[in-house]
Amino acid sequence: MSSGGHAARRFNEDFGATVDGEERQALSVFVRQGEQLFHSWSTFARGEEPFMLVFDLLDLTPYGRQETWEDSPRGWPQDPPYTWMRLHDRYEE
To answer: Domain of life of the organism in this record (predicted)?
Structure first.
């Protein structure tokens, strides 16, 4: 399935990966029994962190993720959670 087609957008909307036209982090598990396909599990946002090694690595660095929830010294850069993440097609020129 193409990542930019109507079918992909519909799939993402049906399974909560696209909300109000914006893509968000999502992980789903499906199981097939014969010709039937079942959606057995999903998680979103922070629920995905155990599967994303990059977060564990960032948490070990002096600046961490640079997110507002972290207890960082005054003057250290901080932004709202996940604002540093970019989709592969969402980088500015």
So the answer is: Bacteria
Give the pLDDT confidence of 13-47 residue by residue, as tens digits.
877 777 888 777 788 888 888 899 888 888 877 77
> For 77, phi and psi rounded to 5 degrees?
-65, 135
CB 26 within 8 A of CB 5: no
Segments making up each domain of the chain, as ranges: 6-42, 52-83
> Residue 86: its pLDDT value, please?
72
- Which one-letter amino acid corresponds to residue 17? A
Structure tokens belonging to residue 84: 């540093």
Tokens at 22, concatenated: 């914006």
- Token pair, residue 30, equals 């499906």
Burial class (CB in 10 A: 0-12, 13-18, 19+), 51: exposed
